[in-house]
Amino acid sequence: MGWSRQIWVFFVALTVFFEYKLVRKREKWAKSSSVKSKLWEKAHERNAKRVYNAIVGLEGLWVKAGQYLSTRADVLPDPYIEVLRQLQDSLPPRPLKEVNATIKKELGKDPSELFLHFDTSALATASIAQVHRARTKDGKDVVVKVQHKGIKDIILQDLKNARTIVQWVAWAEPDYNFGPVMDEWCNEVPKELNFKLEAENTLKVAKNLDYNNKEVSAELSKNHVDVLVPEILQSTEKVLIMVYMDGVRLNDVAKLKELGVDVQALVESITRSYAHQIYVDGFFNADPHPGNFLVSKEPPFRPILLDFGLTKTLTFTKKQALAKMLLACAEGDYAALLSAFAEIGLKLRMDMPEDAMQVTNFFFRRSIPGKESPEDIKQWTMENEERKKRFQEKQEEEKGSSLHRNPVDAFPGDIVFFMRVLNLLRGLSSMLGARVVYIEIMRPFAETALFSGNVFKTGCGLETESWIHKTPSQSSVESKLRVLLQNLGREDHILGVQVCVYKDGNVIVDTAAGVLGKFDPRPVQPDSLFSCFSVTKGITAGLLHWLADQGKLSLSERVSTYWPEFAVNGKEDITVAHVLNHTAGLQNALASDLKSDPLLMCNWDETLKKLAAALPESSPGVQQVYHALTFGWLCGGIIEKVSGKKFQDLLEEVFVRPLGLNGEFYVGIPAGIEDRLASLTLDTEEVKTMKEAIEKQKAAVSLKSLTTPIERFAEPSETIIKEATSKDAFGGGDAMSTITALPVMFNTLFVRRAIIPAANGHFSARALARYYATLATGGLVPPISSLSEPPLGSHPHKPFDRKFDPLPKGRKKDETKKSDRNVKVVSDIESPKAVESVSSARIFSNPRIHDAFLAAGEYSNLAYTAEKFGLGFRRITSGESKSGEEVIGFGHSGVGGSTGFCYPTQNFVIAITLNKLSQGGVTAQIVRLVTREMGLPCPAMYKSVKADRGPDTIGGAVLED
Q1: Co-location of 774 and 672 in the same domain
Q2: What is the per-residue pLDDT across 620-644, written as a single tens digit (0 to 9) for each?
Q3: Which end of the chain is more exposed for a tag (fewer CB within 10 A), N or C?
Q4: C-alpha pair distances (Å), 778 with each of 643, 782, 842, 849
């Protein structure tokens, strides 16, 4: 039996294969597209019949394969769907004599002795069993499911044959090794042959879905699904008796239409039931083909779920990982997606996470009617070819390295049936002509899995005491700070945080706490990287000051001296100092461009080109208006023109290597560090409060349009509230939409990888603090004294590759010629030497470098008077002087709470990184505690505000953003 079946399978497969090869050759000679289409249509019809006849003759496992294919209207041509659809419930029945014999053997009596009536005609026949309708002695209408004689041996033989075929394919094409998928099938399919297990599974699903319970708790009400499951009456290994449920087959589209069934609502209800099984219960039917569903004949036309022979159980960890995968996909959160893959056991190349996101998006893509699906698949195929091409190019670059491997190194069994369920559900939707957005329907269930109870608030199972990363406390200040952070964490004000404090060149606080993201429960560690928004400006300004300190540029010199293309449209008199002091008049230079194309911010060369041609709004030096995004590109353009080097290269040479910040100090991240990224989210309670305030103001004030969203984030919250509008900077939505879109945009990999020197720095707090500790002493590099692990600087610093295109797939690269870097290029710049554990090296030689940062002393004439900015840095004031506010330091804050600043006279530094964006209350509380415990003045911007507010507000950060 075994060899004849195998030969039959191979014969049919080769026949189909060679016919399609012949059609591909013949179509080259076809004179029109209609002739080509006719060739393919006829070939599909012939081959569909061949495959169907073979399946009917072979039966066994191949029937299940055919049933699966019959649901893939989104993939297979129509002739296959029409022919294979017959396999869903109408296989030729087995002889009644055989059925009766099985019943007698299993139940000890003939059907005539067991039932008042036993229908001799099968109600339905499937691959493993057939179903007969009957009536019990006590008058119950039931169905009797009877296993085919000898089917067990056939199924096991088919699995063996299929495994052999898979092994041959893997040998011939290593990139198509489906061994893990086949292994999972071999483990799970034989379980369908034991109807006792099916009975247990049915009872468990019915209990989990609680379909008869009308008193659903408030907590679970949003996840309640209205479906029916048959009641089990009796079971043996080969016979199963259930209560009969009258319904219409799901594939009987005409009957559903006649009854007036809303197929869209029907498919959504089925999808919800599977989302419940997967994410809430962790126990799901892995075989949702159309034959396993009925639709009740009376309103509200509820789905009836059948056949629970093939089910899959998920561990708590796997269930949460699958939930995290969906939610990370919905949010565009690459770090959480990679973390989810790791927990599932799916190993991918860490330098190609954007492809992982695209693959995941494809799995969760919306369903569309079958006739429209070929275009969907065509687009996916084109994108897949692009991915393969990029991967092949990557392999060529990495020959001989450990990275020369398949993008997927391991494919875990648990995900095999999960993906199969998604594909089958999509096939159902496509067959019925429904459009289902799976992420939207499944998201509430995934959120329940991830956020049920208090599990996730302290890090998805992390004990409260381990919410703080376990490193030795280095001072009493740090011990008290950790108590504060724990309290803020319990109150849900913190998701993830790092705090590092220097005093007199030594680290006295280096604490990490919380989790990396809303959907990423891995703990924050000292080397985790946070997107710090405008904290980046302090680093960018530092590079310009370093070039000035080296004598390579003058702060009072016109920008056009170094950047000749800049000397147009009234910008001839703008100086480097004007740029640093936010008085260049170019705060809205890219506003209209960003409205039409927000991702322009990811295109370095194009932004520099547009800024060079921009028209200022005011004369330079007459008004200080925060340049939220343009500050970075203006400074970056000057830096590259003067140094002749790429921005990231100079950053690495001047600060990263000399200060020992390797791997924890980036402006635009390189590939390969995604697993250390903290993901941004919003404090929803504060957003709600802001929304209410905006709505109140809308009724009372005339509304003005926004410029760019990030530029408006630089203004006080009361300003943004007053000027909130129904149109945001990206050309749609309202101000709150802009605010809530901020984390989503800056979590995406193409934005994280872009060069945005005003807003895209990724730092650890300890690296940021070390940078300011160096600036606080006028450039003297401090010794490394922290006890945190891994040691600062121990990561290999992955270089940024400008050849990488950070823009999403499908966007055209800028075709303009790269700007000329041969204008006044300084080729003799020498970078500071790298520092080890102790160093006397200096970054700056100017003894009055602090005056330059603050626009004080001899530099005071370079800044607009009585404002909050010096030359690139925010002036930190105490507000304690008799004569008014006293300048005590400098630094820069970012929207949402991250900050870094120092007091040079006290040699004090603090850096705070946060991933839950708020109105600054957390930052304010941390700063107040640290300064109070150390006997230092608290900055006025943190002391004078209400206890729950700080200067770095979402939707309305103060000028220093």
Answers
A1: yes
A2: 999 999 999 999 999 999 999 999 9
A3: N
A4: 22, 11, 8, 6
573 inside domain: no
Beta strands in 783-880 (DSSP E): 874-877
Q: Specify if 462 maps to a domain.
A: yes
Question: Is the same domain home to 419 and 485?
Answer: no
Return the higher-pLDDT residue of 465 and 486.
486
* 438 assigned to some structural domain: yes
DSSP 3-64: HHHHHHHHHHHHHHHHHHHHHHHHGGG-SSHHHHHHHHHHHHHHHHHHHHHHHHHH-THHHH
Give 819 or 220, the one with higher predicted confidence. 220
**Chain position carrying tokens 């590099």:** 781
Q: What single DSSP character describes residue 276?
A: I
Note the helical H segments in 550-661.
559-562, 576-580, 591-596, 604-612, 630-643, 647-651, 657-659
Per the structure, the count of domains in the chain is 3
Residues sharing a CB contact under 8 Å with residue 222, sequence separation 6 or more, in sequence order: 444, 448
Q: Cβ atoms within 10 A of the Cβ of 196, count?
A: 13
Residues acting as catalytic residues: 287
Count CB neighbours of 163 within 10 A.
16
Q: b/e map of 684-696 (b: 16 or more CB within 10 Å)?
A: eebbeebbebbee
Total residues found in the chain within this entry = 961
**Has residue 558 been placed in a domain?**
no
Do 404 and 459 share a domain, yes or no?
no
Integer Cα distance of 223 and 42 in angstroms: 47
Specify whether 369 is located in the same domain as 459. Answer: no
Q: Mark whether 443 and 502 lie in a shared domain.
A: no
DSSP state of 279: I
Confidence at residue 330, expressed as pLDDT on a 0 to 100 scale? 81
Half-sphere exposure of 69 (CA within 13 A, CB side): 21
pLDDT above 70 covers a percentage of the chain that reads 75
Q: Tokens standing for 420?
A: 């199969």
CA 346/CA 945 separation, integer angstroms? 48
pLDDT attached to residue 648: 94
Residues in CB range of 865: below 8 A, 6 or more apart: none
Report the percent of the chain where pLDDT is more than 90.
46
What average pLDDT does the chain have? Answer: 80
Mark whether 478 and 402 lie in a shared domain: no
Q: What's the DSSP call for residue 300?
A: T
Q: Please, which residues bridge with residue 460 across strands?
A: none
Separation of alpha carbons 705 and 117, rounded Å: 76
Cβ–Cβ < 8 Å for 312, 284? yes
Q: What is the pLDDT of residues 912-949, one digit of tens each?
A: 999 999 878 899 999 999 999 999 999 998 885 554 54
Q: What is the DSSP letter of 939?
A: P
Report the candidate in 289, 319, 325, 324 with the shortest Cα–Cα distance to residue 307.
Answer: 289
Q: What's the CA gap between 614 and 570, in Å, rounded? A: 9
- Local structure of 476: helix, strand or coil: helix
Whether residue 377 is found in the same domain as residue 504: no
> Can you give the residue range of the structural domain that contains 464?
453-535+667-800+847-961
Cα–Cα distance measured from residue 259 to residue 253, given in angstroms and rounded to the nearest whole number: 10
Specify burial of residue 933 (Cβ count, 10 A radius: 0-12, 13-18, 19+): middle
Among candidate residues 649, 555, 888, 912, the one with its CA nearest the CA of residue 768:
912
| CA atoms of 508 and 473, how far apart (whole Å) | 8
Tokens of 483: 């108590």
Based on the domain organization, do 256 and 336 belong to the same domain?
yes
Predicted confidence (pLDDT) per residue in 251-288, tens digit = 889 999 999 999 999 999 999 999 999 999 999 998 88
Strands (E), 736-861: 761-763
Structural tokens at position 305: 């779920």
Are 679 and 353 a contacting pair, CB within 8 Å? no
Torsion angle defined by CA atoms of residues 86, 87, 90 and 92, in that order, rounded to the nearest 10 degrees: 120
Mean pLDDT of 674-693: 79
